[in-house]
Specification:
The structure holds 2 protein chains of 2 kinds. Chain A contains 8 helices and 20 strands. By secondary structure, chain A is an alpha+beta fold. Chain A starts with a strand and ends in a 7-residue tail after the last strand. The relative contact order of chain A is 0.12. The chains are: A alpha+beta, B mainly alpha. At the A-B interface, strand 6 and helix 2 of A face helix 8 and helix 9 of B.
Chain lengths: 359, 286
């Protein structure tokens, strides 16, 4: 098992730079998830670690050894592809053993590794089948099995669950988590699904447009996002953003007035350089941080559009007087029957116009 | 549902009529003609006349031998060549790929008469470029048109030149449909490019290769243009006469349509038999 270090890693396709100097330190045995929207460079970064893409700048080290010019097969990694990339003309057993057979690994050792992988993934009874005779979940297990037989230092997963249906995805997520515990291997996992990232990761790397926006433990990112992008990306339903304006200062901090709601003022205890009065700001409130009127820092009147009942909790899709969309989480029993309600903001985040966190 | 079908069939009627008159009827009619003695007027029903002659006709067996010889040598060589061409065309290192793709495909669109004339010139004994090239490297001239073996070789070269690119384009399409990540997985598995070709590309390309083989077998069984135009009606002395040429000679030169029909049915039967054997040999294991 090994560490993975990315030092100012850059990727260019022609003149177009898609990864702008990534710095990441993955510890031995850690499960790190790269998350971000499509085209943010997360898969490219993973493929650079695998050696399937050249590195345009910077250094990648695996187990302390710089691997920039090392062949993919010599990097001590194994990769699980989004499309599984199984060999369609081979049985499951042949798929698992192909790499080892081709490189002349002793047969007894190959058999032992294949058997072990099949046991871990519970696919022993599928060994004679071809990929087309397998379900999506079974194919994914075989793909993971093929990675396991290589006994790599680092496992790389490129959106491995994207092609599965919702129920299987949850099931496989748990399996991958179990696998990580069982193998104790370093794992790097790419996904665009923040729920996968939150549930699997020891640490999450949030990426946008080739930049790393923030690296941290799932709950740290949730509780302390560095900027509006991370705040909006982590958490489901996402954080609400309500436009506001600085209207003054008092002893406790800056006073923010929400757009279109002159009576709703929130005081944010800002220390250090604070934006000037009159500046536009964005107030972020998570759906569960809305309370009943009078319970929080400030009250807000919203018009309800749609209510979604999920059983224990319900989500109220509403609009502020200024037209900002907000989602409010409530206990199912406490959903009002009116078209307009007053809610209080119990906890909020403050971002400047560019989306940087002020508080 | 029944009504809707009736309307559909009414729309199809013009086509079906043409199909019946110009396809189905000739097929049935030629089968019946093959059982008639057509060298007498009027034709008379004589079931054993043509088919019996077929069994003992040295001209038929000569044509059959020539056709099968071309089939056995030319088709595998052409498909192997097409495979090599497809691999080269598929290489990411290749520049101006579109140009090469067009160049390889071009022989198919060149007129048969024009290409045959050019081949006759190129292989001419005295002033053909091929013999000049052979001479320039110290090899003797070859009289391509007067000796059977060089004439057969010439037919095979011509057919290969004409169809290898066509097959290469089909194989290339097959290669490009193999997902890139399968090769990436193999690369991570430390499988060399060479082994990737034999253990991944070839097996995954098998259905396309079989398709090309079947097309080529059918095409070669009907081979006519090259022996007719390049080696002058199957020359020298019937040395390159194929079944297609024998059929033509019997039907349209001797006006012996009964025997020509029997030859035609034999060609079709052989093509089907060889193709079925081919499909059976290369079938997917269950």
């Amino acid at each position: 098992m090994a560490t993975v270090t990315l030092n100012n890693v850059i990727k260019r396709f022609g003149v177009f730079e898609v990864v702008h100097g990534a710095n990441i330190d993955v510890k031995h045995g850690e499960f790190v998830v790269f998350v971000g929207p499509s085209g943010c460079g997360k898969s490219t970064l993973l493929r650079m670690i695998a050696g399937l893409e050249d590195i345009s700048g910077g250094e990648i080290a695996i187990g302390g050894k710089v691997v920039n010019d090392v062949e993919p097969a010599d990097r001590g990694i194994a990769m699980v592809f989004q499309s599984y990339a199984l060999y369609p003309h081979m049985s499951v057993e042949q798929n698992l053993s192909f790499g080892l057979r081709m490189t002349g690994n002793p047969k007894a050792d190959t058999d032992r590794r294949v058997e072990r992988a099949a046991e871990i993934l519970r696919i022993s009874e599928l060994m004679d089948r071809r990929p087309k005779k397998l379900s999506g979940g079974q194919r994914q297990r075989v793909a993971i099995g093929r990675a396991i037989v290589r006994e790599p230092q680092v496992f790389l997963f490129d959106e491995p669950l994207s092609n599965l249906d919702a129920e299987l995805r949850v099931q496989m997520r748990v399996e991958i988590s179990r696998l990580h515990k069982e193998l104790g291997a370093t794992m790097i996992y790419v996904t665009h699904d923040q729920t996968e990232a939150m549930t699997l990761a020891d640490r999450i790397v949030v990426m946008r447009a080739g930049h790393i926006e923030q690296i941290g433990r799932p709950l740290d990112l949730y509780d302390n996002p560095d900027n509006q992008f991370v705040a909006g990306f982590v958490g489901s339903p996402k954080m609400n953003f309500i436009n506001g304006r600085i209207v003054g200062r008092d002893a406790r901090g800056v006073v923010v007035e929400l757009a279109g709601q002159e009576k709703t003022r929130i005081t944010q205890p800002l220390t250090g350089a604070a934006p000037e009065t009159g500046n536009k700001v964005i107030v972020g409130v998570r759906p569960e941080h809305f309370g009943n009127a009078g319970e929080g820092d400030a009250d807000l009147v919203v018009a309800i559009d749609v209510v979604e009942h999920l059983g224990g909790t319900s989500f109220l899709y509403a609009r502020t007087a200024n037209g900002d969309d907000v989602v409010i989480q409530r206990d199912a029993a406490k959903v009002p029957d009116t078209s307009e309600i007053t809610v209080s903001i119990r906890k909020s985040y403050l971002f400047d116009e560019k989306g940087l966190r002020l508080r | 549902m029944r009504n809707r079908n009736a309307t559909a069939y009414r729309f199809l009627t013009p086509y079906l009529l043409i199909f019946a008159i110009f396809w189905v009827w000739p097929i049935i009619s030629s089968f019946m003609i093959s059982f008639q003695a057509t060298r007498t007027v009027p034709w008379r029903f004589a079931p054993g006349f043509n088919w019996g002659r077929l069994i003992g006709d040295p001209a038929f067996f000569n044509a059959l031998k020539n056709t099968l010889l071309i089939l056995v040598i030319q088709v595998p060589v052409m498909i192997s060549l097409a495979l090599v061409m497809a691999v080269l065309l598929n290489s990411p290192l290749l520049k101006a790929r579109g140009l090469y793709r067009f160049a390889f495909f071009a022989p198919v669109v060149v007129g048969e008469v024009a290409y045959s004339a050019v081949f006759r010139l190129m292989f001419n004994l005295d002033f053909g470029i091929i013999n000049k090239l052979l001479n320039s490297v110290g090899l003797p001239k070859i009289d391509w048109f007067s000796n059977v073996t060089p004439a057969m070789a010439l037919i095979m070269i011509a057919v290969t030149w004409r169809w290898a690119g066509y097959n290469a384009i089909i194989l290339l399409a097959g290669m490009q449909s193999i997902p890139e990540d399968v090769y990436e997985a193999a690369t991570l598995d430390r499988v060399s490019k060479f082994k990737q070709f034999f253990y991944i590309t070839l097996p995954l390309l098998k259905p396309v290769i079989v398709f090309c083989l079947v097309l080529s077998i059918i095409g070669t069984m009907q081979l006519f243009t090259e022996p007719f135009l390049i080696t002058e009606r199957g020359g020298p002395g019937g040395g390159t006469e194929t079944l297609g040429l024998l059929l033509y000679r019997q039907g349209f030169r001797s006006l012996n349509f009964g025997y020509a029909s029997a030859v035609a049915y034999t060609m079709a039967g052989l093509a089907i038999a060889i193709t079925l054997a081919q499909l059976w040999l290369t079938r997917e294991p269950k």
